[in-house]
Fold each of these.
Amino acid sequence: MDFPGGKVDGVSTLSAADYNQTVGLNNAISSTGQTPSSSDLNQLAKSMAHYGAGNFYSDSGVANAYSLSMIGSAQTPAAYFDGMEIRFRAANQSTGASTITVGALGSKAIKQADGVTDITTEISTTADSVLRFDSANDCFVYDVGISAATTTVTGISLLPTPITLKNNIVDANNDIDFTAGVMQFDDGSGQAATTAITKQLDANFVAGTNQGGLDTGAKAADTWYYCYTIYNPSTGATDALFTSTYGSPTMPTGFTKKAYRGALLTDVLSNIIVGTYDYRPDGSYRFMFDIELMNFNSSPPATSTAVTVSAPIDKEAILNITYLDNDSNSGYIIFREEGQTDIAPNQSSNATIIGDNGSYGKVPNYHINARSNQRIFIRGNDVNATIFTITTRGFVDNII
């Protein structure tokens, strides 16, 4: 090695061995596992490459307080700096607000991408975590893009696994089973993996399986209840809840995130009316009651008349309709959703049912949206029909 600008202490050139034996250079080479040697003039470059590629640390901390050390004899930086990146495999899953200490550089909070919001369950024991130092907020920012996604471990996002409902076998009158899956928070802020749980409609909420699930009040007869999965960001706990108030359940303490999962109806004895939940890949489902529910049994009304059907708010009712026209007049009945224009039924008005001269008709599995008031409107032109019934067979719920 030639010294630029001339001699140093009377020496203009160092041998390779002398060059590698200088104290600072020697330490840099040795800390990367190399033995200084006069036969390899690239040892310093190899050391620089090692540090440039080696940002992986070992963790010896506890949950929510991570303590990192460089692998082997490699040295940690002298101080935190903006953009500094570290990578590690945690010994413990995070459950809430967390800190991290690198070497002896001091403890720093771990935040989400905004540099302000605390992480919750992002740090996993089954996938590497990558953090970047943010000097403006004096914290490490969690990189959500590093972990491979599974149905239970967060990556960029959890793989979709719909949470399904079914009547509990042991107590079908009161209990609903929620399967394990992935809940997408209905405020769009994130998601969480849930475990299978059974909740009781006839008791107020207590956290855990085989515990009460009703948000407030007491179970009532002839009432629709809406089923939610819920999440506590502080503890990472998930649970499930019933409410009679669609869209706005009374949330238990600490649970601030929710996702709607389906609906159920009680009968005159306050028992859950059983049926079959038939789920689709996108998480929507068709529910079919075991026994059809009668909603209308009378002559067709001559003016537009509201009929409450047995379907949840804003869901698609599945109806069975029967009709017997017992005279020689042509009969027409039109069905419409709430908000649609009322028109007189006739053959040219796309009537739902047409009957003539004692004919008997049945329209099975007729779909119509029940809207927010859970009702439809009907109107006929022949009030002499001796049989006209509307029963609800089930409903379609798109979980939106």
Amino acid sequence: MTRKDSSFLIQDELKRYNRQIIMEGWGEEAQLRIRNSTFFIAGAGGLGSAVSIYLAVAGAGSLRICDHQEVELSNLNRQILHDNDRQGRKKVHSAEERITSINPNVHTTALEGRINDHTIADLVADSDIIIDCMDNFETRYVLNRFAVKRGLPFVHAGVYGMAGQITFIQSPETPCLQCIFPDAPPPELFPVVGATVGVMGSLEALEALKYITGSGILLKNRLLLWEGDIMKFEELAIEKNPFCPVCGHT
């Protein structure tokens, strides 16, 4: 697809995205905003797989996917960006190939590296939103600090077994991740079912799309908890910590 002008949709896009364009409050204008946006996806694992795929099929203009790991056999129960033949390949390159096969109109940037305080600015670059698809709080706190500093929207989700959590963070309007989780849990090899990351990753993609299009109500100041074993959603109100070392001064 050749885009001669970023201010209108071509026929291919009107047909591909028709079922979402016809939604009330969406239309071509919202679809253009998605097409003209850049999404930073931190992690090409389980959550990152669902987020990347659903943003790609929704018509995301640009995906910046960051991960430093290689595809392993133990990943394949949940990381649907990858398959059996891609074992040993870097996840970001596997992800780039899969996204291109799903929607060649999406520009995917494979960022092979680690996220830390020294690298994050270059990795995020001109992204419009940060989506947390990590499996550890050390890196999540890096993402959170950067999002607060730059005033970028930040979608957080986490999973464990058949359970998950998600919230939408935008400082100074909402509590930051450090307010919600002041202390990181100890690192562990935690259990997870593939469908769990599918659920939570899909919700993350939806929150990102809602933000970009201005549709619906975001999960601001709310932590949504999902217990898949009993199929129950619960919502908790969350508040800023005035003494938070990251956002307490904002």
Amino acid sequence: MNEKDFPILKNLKNNRLHYLDNAATTQKPKIVIDALRYFYEHDNANAHRGVYKLAEQATAMLNDARMAFSRFINAEADEIIFTKNATEGFNQLAASIEKTFIIDPKHNIATTEIEHHSNFVPWQQLCKRTGAEFRIAKYEIKDDSIQDISRLVDENTVVAAFTAMSNVSGLKPDIKDIIKKIRKINPDTIIIIDATQLIAHERVDVKRLDADFICFSAHKIYGTTGVGIVYGKKLLLEKLEPFFYGGNMISTVSIDESTWADVPEKFEAGTIDVAGIYASSMAIKYLESIGYEKLMEQEQVLKKYLLAELGKIRYVKIIGHNSKNNKNNNNNKSKNNNNYGPVVSFVVDKVHPHDLATIADRHDVCIRAGHHCCQPFMDALKVNATARASISFYNNKKDIDKLISAIKDAHKIIG
């Protein structure tokens, strides 16, 4: 667990990069960068397409990577589908569910107000196309909680889709308990979890969780961009109709009819990013060499420090993290460690988040500003945008100190 493993952090001429936008994408360790280059220099071929040695090696590397991802979340290899990103995964699931099941106005689909757009809009649009009721679990700003989505589920609920960790506030619903409740109410409801944020910070075991589908992106866990992972229970994957056609997902084609390959290839039409998938599997190897316990310990220490330092500034308001329990919404000494991941959004009085992010950049500090692809959540919070600092294990207290200096500088200039 060494910051030297991440070349970009030392890439500025004179200063260390203070990268606090890990919820958007993580930086890549050298083992991932080297693996990507190695593939293109030594093993580049189209997987599944050739019988020559180079193609067979590329196929073997793809299969090895699939095994690595399956072990990572305690799934079977043929339950892992590769996509371009989690967003494509959610959209593909929505399209395949619509093609496979009868959905009409007597049905409903449930999601929450805190979802990333990628796990909100596909279900919204599916309801618009089919006439199904779109049910939304509401966020309660007074006590910083999200309504239990299981209360919206009934015998006509086709899909319940919800996040395991908010990318805005780091709020972590008790998804295991929620899934159990949904199963009791309607065992046929398809449960889809957005694990994009959680999986970088906690071990996800799909067998213990018992969701039907889980989506995440490799670039959130130190892998490359352009690689998404959809876990699905095999019986459901076999039942679902594919949405993309052509290439490797084909079994037979005639003038009148086509048949599909077995799972998982059934959902992987065309050439997929073998190099990125292979390199991203090295990120898993790197994570496992560290161990989630050490990773979580470092991130929790830094999260506490960030909340404490932000809490000292009277003109900063923290979003979530039980800020309601604290004097002036700022003195973050409450018991919040288990309910939130290391993602902290905040607003600075009289300073727009975009202006803050611009000034922070002058301090070599990278933070995110905007609605974070969560406009319904912003509406519930009654703000247009927030600034967001998100922590990785490679961060340190100096990164946070530099952010605090940038906030004070921005408020002095603008406020």
Amino acid sequence: MTAHPPPLSAARIELQDAVEFIWHEADLLDARDYESWLRLWTDAGRYVIPVERDVVDYAGALNIAYDDGALREARVKRLRSGLSISAMAAARTVRTLSRFVRVRDEPGVLEVRCAQHIAEQKREHARVLAADVTYRIVRAGDRLALDLKVIQLIDSDEAQHGIGYLL
């Protein structure tokens, strides 16, 4: 009897594959390639920036962002239109991601937490935002897809000063 490999949807996602996926996502965001970024997501995926750290129930908490697919698309449309105050004179960003830790691992699903620093340059002013970011990456057919991204800023008050890009 010959053993068959598990279906792709059930195959384990390797940490290195997830890290490369996360780096690719960061590169798309720094390049402001929002259309490609939107294609990384599952239909039901959530983009979340909670106000308070260590929140578990994002739906029941106050969030800076709690976006499903339609809201992600609307956010990208506002960023692209230039009509959003925070998107005028768009910031240049460079992201650094490190300290990748496997949080949850099951067939076809991998949650990874990492540290993120974003250096931003806008209107001759620079600032750095730091966050712990959790990604839930899933197998979607023959590709990896983003099903959840939670950005826990170390200082969520910084977001109140306007962030004209996706974290």
